[in-house]
Amino acid sequence: ARSRLLPAGVGDLRAAGHHPGRARHSKGSYRGWAVRAAPAPSGGGGGAKVGAKSRGLSDDQMCKRLLVDIVENRFMVTGQLSEDLYADTALFQDEIDTYDLPSYVRGTGMLFDGAKSDFKLVGDLEFKGQTIRYRFDEILSFKIPLGPRSRVSGVVELVRGEDGLITKYREFWDQSVPATLVDLFLDGVGVKAAAFPAAN
Asked: How many CB atoms lie within 10 A of CB 163?
């Protein structure tokens, strides 16, 4: 896990349950930043009921739901995702380890300070068959002494099962794990602040 290589104490957070726009597919494009939550699944209410799963969503419906989680909820730094979009057996994998759904949700919130973290969706959500891909760029603020931050960018790949639920989440980082940890250390000691690349 990312936690195994982090400073002492961070691994404990992961063990307790860790982690750390727009949309396009063959049918057209979506202005991700303006998208709002799609109507809740049949049954009404302000969101998916506990245990209820949103099976059989079209690409359009899935796209709108995901954009809310990615852009508005910033789930990759807060852990606030729509669990009804995921199979109970879904696995979340980054460049360090693999987690089940409860561990990812609980641990992301425990490990990262969402208010001090920055997140960008870069470009579009791309739908191809059962696979959804998008590029991200984020600066993660860790809930450990000194509050160090580290930049991570890359691609997320989501795989959907036959019922339309997401069964696999996979992060592919642009940076190596050692380089990410060096940046975390340098930010923590005040030598080099984590930052997004300067715009051209």
From this structure: 12
